[in-house]
Amino acid sequence: MNTRRIDFYEGGKMQIKLTCFEVRKFGEEKWQEIPERMVLERLADSYYLVTPIITKMLQGNEIVAETEIYRIRS
């Protein structure tokens, strides 16, 4: 499932970029698309503060939570 991230540019123009969350289990090579809600629920179960984790994901980092790895593909 895709979510929308709105980026503002000079001149007051907006461009919408679709962001896709992906998950991969340890020991597997294939990434699978995952709904945003599921990512947020799983991160909330694994981390006390979710906002810093989401920030890291938006910066291109992969996040490890229990037996899975999460990332944002944009």
Tell me the number of strands: 5
Specify the biggest β-sheet: 5 strands, antiparallel
Provide the helix percentage.
25-40%
Between the first and last Cα atoms, what is the distance in angstroms? 12 Å
Q: What is the string of SSEs from the N terminus onward?
A: EEEHHEE
- Structural domain count: 1
> Shape from CA axes?
globular
Task: Give your account of this protein's structure.
- There is one protein chain.
- The chain is an alpha+beta fold and about 70 residues long.
- The chain has one domain.
- It is built from two helices and five strands.
- The chain has helices at about 35-45, 50-60; strands spanning about 1-10, 15-25, 30-35, 65, 70-74.
- Strands 1, 2, 3, 4 and 5 form a five-stranded antiparallel sheet that branches.
- A hairpin with a 6-residue loop joins strand 2 and strand 3.
Secondary structure blueprint with pairings:
Blueprint: E1 2-8, E2 14-25, E3 32-33, H1 36-46, H2 51-58, E4 63-65, E5 68-73
Antiparallel strand pairs: 1-2, 2-3, 2-5, 4-5
Structure summarized in a few sentences:
By secondary structure, this protein is an alpha+beta fold.
